[in-house]
Design a protein that fits this description.
The chain has 15 helices and 14 strands. It is α/β, with parallel strands linked by helices. It has an 8-stranded mixed beta sheet with strand order 5-4-3-2-1-6-8-7, with helices on both faces. A hairpin with a 7-residue loop joins strand 3 and strand 4.
């Protein structure tokens, strides 16, 4: 689906305009829009914000410009994504950062599902939009919202390059042995049933950042990345390329998550339908929104679960133990897949902030070369850092993820490649 133009080198006497350097990153959810404006010259973020509860009378916009660091909030009805993005544009304009700014080089859009064909960031055109729409059946909650954001942004700035960066793209390097389910091939192909994986921008960013932390190139390093937030996924990354990941056709497969079950016997669905009398929609809601930690103990916040464990709450302790058991199984499985592991990297909200989760996840894995230093593990920091003992065979790292920077970097690189590949005027 993507094209790869051959680079064209400018002649010494061929003038080129100074490139614009800013990228607006948009993450359009079903009822929210997250945004960040990044300057690719220095990595600064002139502005960022969030519109939430779109479609309600109590919609809220929170905007924070870098210049002051003080947030502005507005509450009131925002009926749809078009109104939301227009409100974002107005807030940016108040700070001299509007969508009409000549400094704006492109808009980068997070798109959750790109199927097996979108393997890299892609300039958005009618064909790309049609393919994203065709993938809605395998991403019914995410792709429609992503499409709405893209269409609205294109209407506001039809002249500006806009790029889709796909959550699934990083995982398209998985071999067929990891990507296929063991079901009838023709049925699987007809209905696009395969393992796609998600959180790809995070896994890509963290695997590279981990290699940098070790002082090596990504091609030299094998990393197990553990993205642990309310949604959670693991990946096995060999030499900078994903060879396996825990999420599958949808983000439901894999680790125990905040509200998702992760791995479960598929026959659970048949059992609940036949014996429990539940509809498909009710089972879908159960497994996606009422399972995981919240289903086990009524809380999906690891901090609250930790507090309850400290008070002797047995349900909270069991939920934590199940969470860790599944996580440890994936660490062991991906160790076997990779053969050699240089580092295990924890990231996202839980991975970056929960020392007890990190400690428990590698406890008892000394024979695999995995351990954490108690003092290093207890340190709280926004910087990438190693928490394994000195001289450890396998390094354990905490690497804060930055999906917005990853989207902006991929967007800007693509726009720049195309700018230099474009034929000179008059040719």
């Amino acid at each position: 689906m993507t094209s790869h133009p051959s680079p064209r080198t400018a002649l010494p006497d061929e003038p080129r305009p100074a490139p614009s350097s800013r990228v607006l990153v948009l993450n359009s959810g079903s009822s929210s829009v997250k945004y960040q404006l990044l300057d690719m010259r220095d990595g600064s973020r002139p502005a960022q914000g969030l519109v939430e509860r779109i479609g309600e009378r109590t919609s809220r916009l929170r905007h924070t410009p870098l210049a002051t660091g003080e947030s502005r909030e507005w509450t009131g009805p925002i009926p749809d994504h078009e109104a939301a993005l227009k409100s974002v544009a107005e807030e940016l304009a108040k700070d001299g950062l509007g969508l009409d700014s000549p400094e704006l080089a492109a808009i980068g859009h997070r798109v959750v599902h790109g199927g097996k064909h979108f393997t890299e960031p892609t300039l958005i055109d009618a064909t790309v939009l049609a393919e994203i729409e065709r993938l809605i059946p395998v991403a019914p909650l995410h792709n429609p919202a992503n499409l709405t954001g893209i269409r609205t942004a294109r209407a506001l700035r039809p002249d500006l390059p806009q790029v889709a960066v796909f959550d699934t793209a990083f995982h398209t390097t998985m071999p067929e042995s990891a990507a296929r389910y063991a079901i009838d091939v023709r049925t699987a192909d007809e209905h696009r049933v395969r393992r796609y994986g998600f959180h790809g921008t995070s896994h890509a960013y963290v695997s590279r950042a981990t290699a940098k932390l070790l002082g090596k190139a990504p091609e030299e390093v094998n990393v197990i990345v553990l993205h642990l937030g309310n949604g959670a996924s693991a990946s096995a990354v060999r030499g900078g390329k994903c060879v396996d990941t825990s999420m599958g056709l949808t983000p439901l497969e894999g680790l125990v998550m905040g509200t998702r079950s992760g791995d479960a016997d598929p026959a659970v669905i048949f059992h609940l339908a036949r014996v429990g009398g539940m509809s498909i929609d009710e089972i879908d809601t159960l497994l996606n929104k009422k399972s995981g930690l919240i289903g086990l103990c009524g809380d999906n916040d690891m901090r609250e679960i930790g507090r309850r464990i400290g008070e002797g709450d047995e349900r909270a302790k069991l939920a934590f133990d199940i969470y860790i058991h599944r996580l440890k199984k994936y660490i062991g499985a991906y160790y076997a897949v990779l053969g050699r592991v240089d580092a295990v990297a924890f990231t996202a909200g839980v991975g970056e902030n929960s020392a007890p989760v990190r400690e428990a996840a590698v406890a008892g894995l000394d024979s695999l070369g995995l351990a954490v230093d108690d003092e290093l593990n207890a340190v709280r920091s926004d910087e990438p850092r190693l928490i394994s003992p000195a001289g450890a065979r396998v390094r354990v790292a905490v690497v804060p993820t930055d999906e917005e920077l990853e989207i902006a970097t991929q967007t800007y690189a693509l726009v720049e490649r195309n700018r230099y590949a474009a034929p000179a005027r008059g040719n």
